[in-house]
Amino acid sequence: MKVKRRIHHRKGIKWLLEQNVEIKLEVLKHQLELSRMLINELLEDEVKSYTGERYSHTKPSESRYSRWGFNPSSVKIGSERIRVEVPRVYDHEQESNPTLDMFQRLKELPEIDERLLKAVILGLSTRDYEQVIKTMVDSFGLSSSSVSTEFIEQSSRQLEAFESRNLSDHEFVALFIDGKYLAKEQIIIVLGVTEQGDKISLGFIQSATENYTSIKELLNKLVDRGLRYEEGILCVIDGSKGIYKAVKEVMGTYAVIQRCIWHKRENVLSYLNDMQQEHYRRRLNKAYGCDTYQEAKDQLEAIIKELKAVNVSASRSLQEGLEETLTLHRLE
Questions:
Q1: How many Cβ atoms from other residues are within 10 Å of residue 156's Cβ?
Q2: Quick check: 318 and 281 in contact, CB under 8 A?
Q3: What digits encode the pLDDT tens for the residues 219-238?
Q4: Do 307 and 316 meet the contact criterion of CB atoms below 8 Å apart?
Q5: DSSP 8-class letter at 98
Q6: pTM value?
Q7: Partners of 265 in the beta sheet?
């Protein structure tokens, strides 16, 4: 799912925490969005000091100031330049638009290295959200008082609530478990799918690799929070042995494994040249698109046999775990 940039150019971190998992993952893929959201919060705090809360009838300075739209601009974060929409304030007495002090300070930010982002990830994975905000603020060369105490406290409570939700209110039929990289650090994410088809982000951890121990701990915590699987649950995973072992140890025979078809296809194609990739991508898509288990298996076995003469490694890659890529076909 692509998140339209116009939607969140003016949003802050508080907004991000309220969004569904697709939007959160999209933001994680573009880590500079986290910096943009903090910038938006800082600018909004200063605007509120002039005009008060948006849509509130209580105005400071006897309504001397009003919100006055936005101006496009940018702020440099490290070696990257982030486009931002800077809110404008109108001074009815001076009949002018005062310059936001916070924006001027943001334009003079020092260089930010990769250690900042890793510190942010560490704070998120250890649920120390207040430290995340303080780390980002400190790296910007700003004082902690630049971010309102109310914002830090509210955001911290929201993340704590997110990580301690009671999952027993939901009947989950499937789990998606996968790792995403951010600043060379791997984040393991668990996404649940309910009987109604709703996708709910259940939890995440930071892990150097998709290792069995940390993933098992994450799954056990989800069970402690009320995740039920005793009636059977579909677990969609890639080829990671660590994820597979953790799922089987925590959920045993109640876990029905479906190997991710996208990962399997891309692994197979990685052994082939460009021309071969185009041909076998179509063949694999057609095979996995078959309506019945037997039809899909017959086509895939034919591809395996054919690939032995083209690239043995590609053939072995497709053969490995083949049955688990057809779990949904068998269930149908």
A1: 17
A2: no
A3: 999 999 999 999 999 999 98
A4: no
A5: P
A6: 0.57
A7: none
Residue 10 half-sphere exposure toward CB, CA atoms < 13 A: 11
Q: CA 170 to CA 228: how far, in whole Å?
A: 9
Predicted local distance difference test score (pLDDT) of residue 253: 94
Strand 65-77 versus strand 185-194 pairing type: unpaired
Give the C-alpha separation, 48 to 138, whole Å: 22
- CA pair distance 126, 204, nearest whole angstrom: 10
At 31, list the tokens.
């880590």
What is the separation, in whole angstroms, between the first and last Cα of the chain? Answer: 26
Whole-angstrom CA distances from 139 to 10, 111, 116, 144, 307 are: 21, 8, 7, 11, 52
Distance CA 253, CA 230 (A): 9
Q: How many residues does the chain have?
A: 332
Separation between Cα atoms, residue 42 and residue 30, nearest integer Å: 20
Which DSSP category does 53 fall into? S
The helix/strand/coil state of 12 is coil
Alpha-carbon distance values, 111 to 20, 69, 135, 138, 197 (Å): 32, 30, 14, 12, 44
